[in-house]
Amino acid sequence: MKTTTIHPSALVSPEAQLGEGVQIDAFAIVEGNVEIGAETHIHSHAMIRSGARIGSHCDIHPGAVIAGIPQDLKFKGEETFVYIGDYTTIREYATVNRGTASRGYTKIGSYNLIMAYSHIAHDCILHDHVIIGNASQIAGEVEIDNYAILSGSVLVHQFGRISQHVMIQGGSRVTKDIPPYTLIGRDPIVYCGINIVGLRRRGFTNEQIFHINDVYRTLYQRGLNNTAAIATIEEELPESPERDLILDFIRSSERGIVRGGME
Predict the structure, then answer these.
(1) Is 140 a catalytic residue?
(2) Separation between Cα atoms, residue 35 and residue 50, nearest integer Å
(3) Catalytic residue among 43, 57, 119, 122
């Protein structure tokens, strides 16, 4: 059993609930109404504000602020939360804001890496194994699915959706929904192909990758609108979890998906 250690210069509310083996370094601040899981490390000058619920084995680096008040005028001081899963790293000066009455919480899953100077706004949901590059800015109520990677200085418009196994080029401005398995780049952003390197790293077979590519070739390169492309894909390509995930994402997109590079 590891002992919880709190540096004498740290300010930790007696109302905070700390798990076994938590380490809180010099000049860190932990407010009341906070829960921190076992063996999480709160580095020097990090600030954990009221409403934070942090899992175990997390690493919160210097200057990061977790559960800051939302930068949203509809926030009226209601009790809201930030949930962070296990084994997630928040690097220097990143900020993760609490939710508003819209959802009530901001949620970051497990095994995520939020790099330095990034901002995760109110009511966002990040699933697991997500990487947010340095200085990327995620506006309110954005959802980012498993294994998505956003390179440095990416800007994501509020209410946007980024599906799983996506790779987005640094400096991109994301104003449309990003469907699964895609590689996104250029300015303004377009579909640049499928994320082959990422899919292979995740264990996708060549057959799965070829099938995904066939779906996107029909969607983006045959001159069809989305409705006609979906019908053609369903008629010509066999069912698979990958095909159905892509089609379900397109159907449920309220703001529309990113355009194709050949359009």
Answers:
(1) yes
(2) 9
(3) 122
Looking at 141-256, list the stretches that DSSP marks H as alpha helix, in order from N- to C-terminal side: 196-201, 206-221, 226-236, 241-252
pLDDT in tens, 191-247: 999 999 999 999 999 999 999 999 999 999 999 999 999 999 999 999 999 999 999
CA distance 217 to 229: 10
Q: Cα dihedral sign for 112, 64, 37, 126?
A: negative
The token pair that represents 125 in the structure block? 């949901």
Strands 182-185, 190-194: pairing kind = antiparallel
21: annotated active-site residue: no
**Lateral strand order in the sheet of 155-156:** 11-12, 29-30, 47-48, 65-68, 95-97, 119-120, 137-138, 155-156, 173-174
72, 123, 145, 177: the catalytic one is 123
Q: 78: which residues sit within 8 A by CB, 6+ positions away?
A: 100, 101
Of the pLDDT bands very low, low, confident and very high (cuts 50, 70, 90), residue 263 is very low
Active site residue 260: no
* Nearest-5° Cα angle at 129, 56 to 125: 85
